[in-house]
């Protein structure tokens, strides 16, 4: 399908916000050379969601979005929250402490490959040759970006495997979200999924990090504010809009520039080393996006 102008506009903003958020999260939970204090990751995520929710609710009130959820639909809403948000946010914020921000983003955004596999193996989908080429280009880009990181990943294999598991669950959730028959506005679904995820993060933070609680320093406050306002009040809703209005492979591959942006912004902000594979992957990601978003013959909008 060819995306609309609205979808492309949302896609650009989503790419910028999520791409830049990887070094922001890394800085928030692992510190910086000037401020090496590590902050509890689950607490960081819980605070980001708790402070982002009032902004999201205010926006939905202004838009007069009905927020009531009939009791019969809470089970389905919980399953969607688990596969689309809970596992991803819980794993990503913990794993980013053990990985560089760029490499964590790359592992996380292997999601399009899992989305393609779920579609073929479980949901009976068939892909065009252009979509197959797009998935292949995205996969090769990930392999190239990881080529110089095997030494680092060998020191944190559980974190690497956890990120891949989270990406696999997220890919499945994208399919389930698109096929959901919940008779609710998308913005209401986004709000209540965020509420459920925030509740889980708060409980986990209380159980496992209570002894490490402290007032966050200035750089952590800034990182929490960025996540609360940009990520949870806007970007999470934007992703759900793309995931529900576009095919899973198209919506997921179309955000493959996020790990590229995360890698380069991490190199700039956190002095993470870059290699030739990073630049080659940039070209492959553009090819993957073009294969999905452009019409044959170059007539894409």
List the topology elements.
Elements: H1 5-30, H2 41-62, H3 74-95, H4 101-108, H5 111-121, H6 129-146, H7 150-154, H8 157-179, H9 186-209, H10 218-245, H11 248-253, H12 257-270, H13 276-293
Helix pairs in contact: 1-4, 1-10, 1-12, 2-3, 2-9, 2-10, 3-8, 3-9, 4-12, 5-8, 6-13, 8-10, 9-10, 12-13
Question: What does it look like?
Answer:
This protein has 301 residues and is an all-alpha fold. It has one domain. 75% of the residues lie in helices and 0% in strands. The chain has helices at 5-30, 41-62, 74-95, 101-108, 111-121, 129-146, 150-154, 157-179, 186-209, 218-245, 248-253, 257-270, 276-293. Helix 1 (5-30) runs antiparallel to helix 10, helix 6 packs antiparallel against helix 13 and helix 8 (157-179) crosses helix 10. The radius of gyration is 19 Å and the shape is globular. The protein starts with a helix and ends in an 8-residue tail after the last helix.
């Amino acid at each position: 399908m060819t995306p609309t102008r609205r979808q492309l506009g949302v896609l650009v903003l989503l790419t910028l916000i999520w791409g830049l958020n990887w070094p922001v999260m890394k800085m928030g939970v692992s510190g910086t050379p000037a401020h090496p204090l590590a902050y509890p990751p689950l607490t960081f995520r819980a605070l980001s969601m708790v402070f982002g929710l009032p902004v999201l609710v205010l926006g939905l009130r202004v838009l007069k979005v009905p927020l009531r959820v009939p009791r019969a639909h809470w089970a389905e809403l919980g399953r969607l929250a688990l596969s689309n948000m809970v596992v991803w946010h819980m794993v990503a914020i913990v794993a980013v402490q053990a990985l560089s921000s760029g490499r964590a983003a790359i592992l996380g955004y292997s999601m399009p490959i899992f989305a393609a596999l779920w579609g073929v193996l479980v949901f009976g989908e068939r892909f065009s040759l252009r979509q197959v080429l797009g998935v292949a280009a995205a996969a090769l880009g990930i392999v190239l970006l990881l080529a110089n990181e095997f030494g680092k990943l060998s020191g944190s294999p559980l974190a690497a495997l956890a990120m891949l598991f989270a990406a696999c669950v997220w890919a499945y959730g994208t399919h389930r979200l698109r096929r959901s028959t919940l008779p609710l506005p998308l913005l209401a679904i986004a709000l209540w999924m965020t509420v459920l995820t925030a509740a889980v993060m708060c409980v986990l933070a209380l159980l496992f990090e209570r002894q490490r609680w402290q007032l966050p320093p200035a750089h952590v406050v800034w990182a929490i504010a960025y996540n609360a306002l940009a990520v949870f009040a806007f970007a999470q809703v934007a992703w759900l809009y793309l995931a529900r209005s576009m095919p899973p492979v198209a919506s997921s591959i179309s955000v493959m520039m996020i790990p590229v942006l995360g890698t380069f912004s991490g190199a700039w902000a956190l002095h993470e080393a870059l290699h030739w594979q990073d630049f080659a992957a940039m070209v492959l990601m553009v090819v993957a996006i073009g294969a999905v978003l452009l019409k044959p013959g170059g007539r894409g909008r």
